[in-house]
Amino acid sequence: MKVQVNTSNDIDNKEALETWASEYLNEHLARFEQDITSIEVQ
Asked: Is the whole model's pTM more than 0.85, yes or no?
């Protein structure tokens, strides 16, 4: 599943946030993997 994280340019460690969000959401929403193709986080 594709996770897209949208943040302002003022966020420090943006890559770490994107990695954490992607791993967290993939882990917790794995049971819906067949139904969800992408998630956008703002």
From this structure: no
